Amino acid sequence: MSGASIIDGKAFAEGLRARVARQVAVLNQKHGLTPGLTVMLVGEDPASQVYVRSKGKQTVEAGMKSDEIRLPADTSHDTVLAKVKALNRNPSVHGILVQLPLPRQVDSTAILNAIEPAKDVDGFHVINAGRLATGQDALVPCTPLGCLLMLKDRLGDLAGAEAVVVGRSNIVGKPMAQLLIKESCTVTVAHSRTRDLPAVCRRADILIAAVGKAEMIKGDWVRPGATVIDVGINRVERDGKARLVGDVDFAGAAKVAGAITPVPGGVGPMTIACLLVNTVTAACRQAGVPVPEV
Ligand code: GUN
Hints:
Blueprint: E1 5-6, H1 9-31, E2 36-42, H2 46-61, E3 65-71, H3 77-89, E4 95-98, H4 108-114, H5 126-133, H6 142-155, E5 162-166, H7 173-182, E6 186-190, H8 197-202, E7 206-209, E8 227-230, E9 234-238, E10 241-245, H9 250-254, E11 259-260, H10 267-287
Parallel strand pairs: 1-11, 2-3, 2-4, 5-6, 5-7, 7-8, 8-11
Antiparallel strand pairs: 9-10
Helix pairs in contact: 1-10, 2-10, 6-7, 6-10
Bound molecules: guanine.
């Protein structure tokens, strides 16, 4: 039995993509601006290929220009770097996304930091991370941005809320914590070495699970009425079938939480929708036109 209301990320993302498409149409009409996103994929990782295809399709559906650069798995670091530098110089490319993971011979950190910060629609460049941390205009990583939009839609003002972020990655945990600090939450970042993690989670009005461990967070770790955002996407086998589950034991947590995101259909669809938002933001800033409100 589920007591929590389910946060429908799929529907939310559809609405957001429709708003982005309307903004793009206006930018086109009023300013002759067509935002352009180029995604680079090195190698043949099957999950990355699925993501990249979805990104391209949704970019086009929103009325933007989409390009893909596909390179073989044995491409050298210098070749990837040269491609990024060429995209930095191309004025019709407003957003650059280098799909991760990159092959071992390519230094991911160096490549991400070679992307022009104004075109860094993933928000992974050290300049964007620093801008976010210091409250300056930044391009914000897409997954935490999607989580924040869903939280604000559900809860309104987040000021004063106890937020616990489980996971300290550069892609989700750290930027999520920064966004919640900016919203005046009291933020705890927990991780694999946290003492008594269940007790820390039980403090949360807002619980963000981003650890990458299938169903690690149990129902009795959740404070009654809490809002639970599950960032995990883990492939498991159940009854001989492959299934996707989150980092939260959904059945257990849904009995206790006030609201919870499902997996699939929660955070996942919001990530690409926020990539479209970031591409519009980047294009407007580069063209010197006002950035539309999300
Ligand atoms: N691989 C998995 N998720 C992401 C993402 O959000 N951005 C990039 N660049 N690569 C990824």
